Amino acid sequence: MTVGDSIRNYVRRRVTLWERRRTERYIRALPPELQKDIGWADDETFDEPSAYRRNGLLERRW
Fold first, then answer.
1. For residues 21 and 62, what is the distance between their CA atoms, to the nearest angstrom?
2. How does pLDDT run across 9-58, given as a tens digit for each residue?
3. Measured in Å, how far apart are the chain's first and last C-alpha atoms?
4. Cα–Cα dist 25/15, whole Å
5. Are the C-beta atoms of 40 and 31 separated by less than 8 Å?
6. What is the helix, strand, coil percentage profile of the chain, to 5?
7. Is this structure's pTM higher than 0.70?
């Protein structure tokens, strides 16, 4: 694996994480009734520290 491949894989993982966080924020902005209708998990699941590991170096802010 070359250095370029390693960098591409890292960036790909980061983009996936950014997109997931953005989606979670969009869904959490919906009223609780809609969240329940689409089968979104309860808030307790996402309050765990491990759910939002932050890497401030390259974290995109929305």
1. 10
2. 999 999 999 999 999 999 999 999 999 898 887 654 554 444 455 555 55
3. 32
4. 15
5. no
6. 65, 0, 35
7. no
